[in-house]
Amino acid sequence: MAADARLEARITREQKELVQRAAALEGRTLTELVVRSAQQAAELTINRHEQAVLTARNGQAFVRALLEPRPPNQALRDAAAHYRRVMHSG
What we know:
By secondary structure, this protein is mainly α. It has one domain (13-87). Helix content is 73%, strand content 0%. It is rod-shaped.
């Protein structure tokens, strides 16, 4: 995929030296290191946010199921009857 968008940032001289050193240690260009690191940080942030939202949504669904249980369907009633027959036939 061709990179056609630009991103600019102002950083201190010390930050630039640090990032350049890290890039050199990995055998990457400064741009490659910064882009890869920014993408990884963005993906991690998005994943954490999505997990938190899903966790909250799942928690709400769980509480709703406890407070407003649905009546058992035929498959559950059949399973309960089977369990009683098997466990009490001893």
